[in-house]
Design goal:
single chain, alpha/beta, Metallo-beta-lactamase, Chain A, Rossmann fold, seven-stranded mixed β-sheet, six-stranded mixed β-sheet, about 25% strand, globular
């Protein structure tokens, strides 16, 4: 079978091509992994001792007649789109992506193709992100105000990608930056990849409790319901996610503040990426599939949906997608089986 590899498989396979290291896309047990070179360190830190090859962005591999290359997705460190060419037909599987550049990963690259498989996590017109610098300014001002009141700032965000993006945008002159144990190992992987992050420490490194009154704490959402959070006494908490744009999301999370910051493309970003691909056929996965399919069909594109179970990093139930580049243009099935966060 041409290709004979799987993209982001949810169960062990002989050859896995990984778009990025979030745990709903990268799972243990496969015999061999292929991923973008910048993300190899993070994958090893998350999956342990694996057989993995890092491919430079744009570098090509030919396997069973399929020419494969990886291209920046702009999602997190090492995230990639998978370009596959077979007998003159080009498919691109986007993985997760965002089009706004940030300093912690390679920016999204448009890749021309005949068929574009796109995510749709925020595939509704209501999702339109503010420029990230304005969000960083809001976060720093919230931290500054809390520090003036002698109150710790606790900011919940996903440990991989979002946490490091926030760290890069923090004003370290305000106070100490403390990271949860789930975040700090990933910070090391980012630094080893050459990404500049401010100095961080663990709570075990803090000997003077007064230091906590000026500090910001970066922690995964799960920490909010754990005994660990009680160490900070009087604190104000916030959550950084694209879902914070929804009315009531902050209330459901039970936090003081919500910052709308996502590592996924918003509606204009999705439309921009689809248009730039030049693809006449669009396959929409994991997210607001019916809305995007209907809209794209109205724009004259051949669009269809493909159900997967990608989800937030903390909600793992990831099906697998086996790529068959020889599939006929009218096929509704880009793969056999099927294989995010915000």
């Amino acid at each position: 079978m041409p290709g004979d590899f799987y993209i982001d498989p949810w169960r062990p396979v002989p050859r896995a091509v990984i778009t990025h290291a979030h745990s709903d896309h990268a799972r243990t047990g496969s015999q061999h992994y292929l991923a973008a070179a910048p993300g190899v360190g993070v994958l090893k830190s998350r999956l342990g001792d694996i057989s993995i090859e890092g491919l430079a962005y744009g570098e090509q591999r030919v396997h069973n007649g399929v020419t494969l290359s990886l291209h920046p997705a702009g999602h997190v460190l090492g995230s990639s789109q998978v370009r596959m060419e077979y007998k003159g037909e080009v498919w691109v599987a986007s993985g997760d992506y965002k089009v706004e550049a940030d300093a912690t990963c390679a920016p999204f690259e448009s890749v021309a193709c005949d068929t574009f498989i796109t995510e749709s996590t925020f595939g509704l017109p209501i999702y339109r992100w503010q420029a990230q610098q304005s969000i960083f300014d809001d976060i720093n001002q919230w931290w500054r105000n809390n520090a003036a009141l002698g109150r710790t700032s606790v900011l919940y965000s996903y440990a991989f990608g979002k946490a490091q993006r926030i760290l890069h945008g923090l004003d370290a002159s305000i106070g100490s930056i403390i990271c949860h144990g789930a975040v700090e190992p990933l910070n090391r992987a980012y630094r080893e990849a050459g990404i500049r992050l401010p100095a961080t420490k663990m709570i075990s490194d803090v000997t003077d409790k007064n230091e906590l009154k000026q500090a910001i704490v970066i922690a995964p959402p799960s920490a909010g319901s754990s005994p660990w959070i009680k160490r900070f006494g009087n604190f104000s908490d916030a959550f950084a996610s694209g879902w914070m744009q929804l009315r009531g999301a902050r209330r459901r999370r039970g936090v003081d503040r919500g910052f709308v910051l996502s590592d996924h493309a918003d509606w204009p970003g999705l439309m921009q990426a689809i248009s730039a691909s030049g693809a006449s056929r669009i396959i929409v996965t994991h997210g607001s599939i019916p809305v995007m399919v209907r809209y794209l069909q109205q724009q004259g594109l051949q669009a269809s949906g493909f159900d997967t179970e990608y989800g937030d990093e903390d909600e793992i139930a990831t099906p697998m997608v086996k790529i068959e580049p020889q599939a006929q243009p009218n096929s509704e099935k880009p793969a056999e089986g099927g294989s995010d966060h915000a």
